[in-house]
Design a protein that fits this description.
202 residues, 11 helices, mainly alpha
Length: 202
């Protein structure tokens, strides 16, 4: 997934932010994640964000030029945390187990941070996140290609298709847990891994 940088982010690059400004921006991003996850995009107003942060609406607009810019920054923030978690898990695994690490880390992180899942969904649904499908499937397809013992007979097209299928399964598992908090996504991740490795040579 990818997002376009906000105009406020671009303008802030012209000068170094102070420690206080960085702290305030971080606070506003966290508050936005909470509010969008709890109330939805439409009901997460700048006034509501300001109230939860304990500052004025004008103070929010000092740091972010609009609600859209703030939501994009929040979206980028949660995606960065998700990517960092998944990358760390992949780097800790050997090549053959990297696809399994990807699946478990992706599902595990979103299980532990359900507000992040809602933030991503709300931002994408409301046009505040630019989505390039290839950015989702290509890294996983590359992992599948490197996991030769698991998918050594698969062509590039087959690896791409498998990556798309896995991505869809991950999304469905995560969505199911949002609808039913008792749904065991850790067990679901293990079952998905078993399916991916089902044709693995002995």
């Amino acid at each position: 997934m990818a997002t376009r940088p906000s105009k406020s982010s671009k303008s802030s690059e012209a000068r170094e932010l102070t420690l206080t400004e960085r702290a305030r921006r971080s606070q506003l991003i966290e508050v936005t994640v909470e509010l969008v996850a709890d109330r939805g995009y439409a009901d997460a107003s700048l006034a509501g964000i300001a109230e939860r942060a304990g500052i004025t609406k004008a103070a929010v607009l000092y740091h972010f030029e609009s609600k859209a810019a703030l939501v994009r920054a929040a979206h980028e923030h949660v995606l960065a945390q998700l990517v960092a978690h998944v990358v760390a898990a992949i780097e800790a695994a050997d090549a053959d187990q990297a696809p399994a690490a990807y699946i478990r880390a992706m599902i595990g992180h979103l299980r532990e941070h359900p507000r992040h899942t809602r933030m991503i969904t709300e931002a994408m649904t409301n046009g505040e996140g630019v989505y390039d499908p290839a950015e989702r499937w290509r890294p996983l397809a590359d992992l599948l290609g490197a996991a030769t013992r698991a998918v050594e007979t698969k062509t590039d097209l087959e690896r791409r298709t498998l990556a798309i299928i896995i991505g869809g399964a991950i999304d469905a598992i995560v969505s199911e847990q949002l609808a039913d908090p008792d749904y065991d996504t850790a067990a679901a991740a293990d079952q998905l891994v078993d399916l991916v490795y089902a044709d693995r040579p002995a």
